[in-house]
Design brief:
Elements (H helix, E strand, L loop, with lengths): L10 H16 L5 H15 L5 E8 L4 E9 L5 E3 L3 H9 L3 E3 L17 E9 L2 E10 L7 H17 L1
Antiparallel strand pairs: 1-2, 1-6, 2-3, 4-5, 5-6
Helix pairs in contact: 1-2, 1-4
Length: 161
């Protein structure tokens, strides 16, 4: 059974708790979709000042990302590799931390309220599985601390696949 924690709003306090919760949620569960669904719900509940948290999965047949489990408003269903923040992170297989999405060339606006974004690629043995995408209505919402912890959390999820 999952019990909700009280979060402080301070990343240095909240991420260790979120990471422990994620580890407990995905332990011994090999199903990727189940783990992504729980991870998106956990991040949605635990992070402040976000308006979307979820995953896009690699569709190798079409060579693009397709919407996976998420929390927030309905989203763009397909994103070509190299397009927008998600497609760029996926194509380059590196985290994109964007302070102002409106300044990002080719930004894809699924939710007009989004102002900043972080996208962490999910890669196993050099193969792209998908990306974690988190949006915020606040400019410059995400920091290096967010990036460090979210990369650790994505690595834990990928390890289960």
């Amino acid at each position: 059974m999952f019990t909700s924690e009280l979060y402080t709003g301070r990343p240095e306090d909240d991420y260790p708790v979120l990471n422990r919760q994620l580890q407990a949620l995905i332990a011994d569960e090999p199903n990727l979709i189940a783990n992504l669904a729980n991870a998106s719900a956990l991040l949605w509940q635990g992070l402040q000042d976000i308006n979307w948290a979820g995953f896009y999965l690699m569709d190798e047949e079409r060579n693009q990302l397709v919407l996976g489990p998420f929390q927030g408003l309905p989203a763009c269903v397909r994103i070509p590799l190299g397009k927008g923040v998600c497609g760029t992170a996926a194509a380059q297989q590196r985290t994109e931390l964007v302070a102002d999405v409106h300044a990002f060339p080719g930004h894809i606006a699924c939710d007009a309220r989004s102002r900043s974004e972080i996208v962490v690629p999910m890669v196993k043995n050099g193969k792209l599985i998908g990306v974690l995408d988190i949006d915020s209505p606040v400019l410059n919402r995400f920091s290096d601390i967010d990036q460090q912890w979210l990369e650790q959390m994505v690595a834990a999820i990928v390890e289960q696949v």
